[in-house]
Amino acid sequence: MKPRTRIVLTAVGMLTLVSLACGTLPTPTPFTPTDTPTTESTDTPPPPPTDTHTPEPTATPTPSTPATDTPVPTDTPVPPTDTPIPTSPPAGLAILSFTVEVEDIPTGKRLTFEWETTGATGARILSGTSQRFPPGWEVPPNGTLTDELTGTLYEDPPMTLIAWDGAGNEVSETVNADWDCEHDYFFALNTTACPMAAPSETWAAEQPFENGWMMWFERVTSGDIFFERQIVVFYDDGTYEQFEDTWTDSDPVDDPSLNPPSGLYQPVRGFGKVWREEPGVRSKLGWATATEQGFDTQWQQQNVESLASVTYTRRLNGSIVRIYGWASTIDFHWEYVN
Predict the structure, then answer these.
(1) CA distance 315 to 187
(2) Which of 103, 165, 234, 262 could be 110's S-S partner, Cβ–Cβ 3.0 to 4.6 Å?
(3) Confidence band (pLDDT; 50, 70, 90) for 142?
């Protein structure tokens, strides 16, 4: 058994901690040893402190019956209690089956979901008909659900079942609903995003320049909005500008004082007015490399869930151009569709 003087010191230390917690520091009777303390390797214990504590009886206690009112410190380290123990989702949490059937109705589609899980306490189904704000349903761990949706922004939209247990573990499974877009693109496009509407046919004109080209559209649509007599200046650096064609028969066809270099041309009528009067267009676009030419083309917008719109049109040479930011104030750039 360890010397009882260690037990007394421990009790004083505990008294000090309790008093500190209560906001008052006690003034204990000073501990004054009678001689120099010895190391633990000696068999002679140091003399007891001279305080008001009533000393224990000097009789040697029986080893088999230690005092029950005195805590005996242990040398065995106690593992920290704040170390997290790694856990893994229980093997019993799983999705056994998940299906969706799609039925045509006059207002859109009727979807019937059926699912079965094990080890789950709750579940949710998310519809991929919209990705930014997906419709969802809170459902039990097992069951069926039938609901109706008016449309989808994506072809064969993904439907996802998420199941969880009481410990917060989750599992999920996704299936695609058999759901075509309401409209088709006027060209082959590798995307699941649906067109906003059917393509519109329009008369157009195009003229190539040293650093880009101009296109004129008789009538185009942006959702439910119609734009007539639009001129778009496409620059080779991937940017573009959009203008309304305000040229009339009372305006000059061209500027006789401007003489293009040999083999180049000055644009005329609506193209010429924009080229001469709109700041920066002439210097950035350069001279025309050929005269303008009219043709029939298509114009179609894609469904998007952000502010920058996406529009497609066909050039005179058959190339498909993707236009970003039409009729908006941000993200004006274009690119070819391979």
Answers:
(1) 13
(2) 103
(3) very high
Please, how many CA atoms are within 13 Å of residue 312, restricted to the half-sphere of its CB? 26
* Domain span at 281: 200-336
**23 Rama sector, left if φ>0, alpha if ψ -120 to 50, beta otherwise:** left
Domain check: are 124 and 206 in the same one? no
Total domains present in the chain? 3
Measured CA to CA, the distance from residue 165 to residue 141 in angstroms comes to 10
pLDDT tens digits, 20-40: 333 433 334 333 344 444 444
CA distance 165 to 186: 48
pLDDT in tens, 247-278: 999 999 999 999 999 999 999 999 999 999 99
Greatest Cα-to-Cα distance within the chain, rounded to the nearest angstrom:
128
State pLDDT tens for residues 53-81: 444 444 444 444 444 444 444 444 444 44
Quote the tokens at residue 231: 């001129």
227, part of any domain: yes
Sequence-separated (6 or more) residues with CB below 8 Å from residue 161? 95, 98, 113, 115, 123, 124, 125, 172, 173, 174
